[in-house]
Predict the 3D structure of the following.
Amino acid sequence: MSEYTVREELKPSGLDGISDAQINDHWGLYTGYVNQSNALHKELEEMRAAGKTASLTYADRRRRFGFEYNGMVLHEYYFAQMKPGVSLDQAPGFKAAVTEQFGSPEAWHEDLVAAAKSRGIGWAIAYYDGTTGQINNHFIQFHENGNVGGFAPLVIVDVWEHAYMVDWKAMGRGDYLAALHKNMNWSIIEARFQAAKSGQIFKRF
Ligand SMILES: [Fe+2]
């Protein structure tokens, strides 16, 4: 299989209230997930070729696969979604959908922030269920516990402490979430929504 590469074109800079130092630090962690996903793939193939699939080490690496892969993929959605100065009006379809479902975009966002403030490390993700047309906000523990199979991620919020430690320290999750809201690239969120609604796969890069 082909190797994954670090998608430099997704790296944001010049955000409104989130420093480049914070992004650079976080980017280094994302790079690690790309490298580990590649390394794990290689290691699993080697172990299978050597007839070691019944070993405890193989079982452990298999479990680790979901952690590293989701760590890589979720960061790619997350970084691509950060851009300052984009109005929610750039996401008319998404805005109408959350207004219909939650009463207002503010009510949807309040629910997302409530999910994002769940105790523990992980992600808050607004998912689109292509079967029912419903948008649900979910909390994901670590990178891999809580993602819903087949649902399309629309809005992805990293709430690991590393996402805000540089700018706000450990207690700064609320300040970070407020800053992140000012840097939502609503255009890409609309593109994800429209793709999901029409049953298409939205490509991360
Ligand atoms: Fe992260």
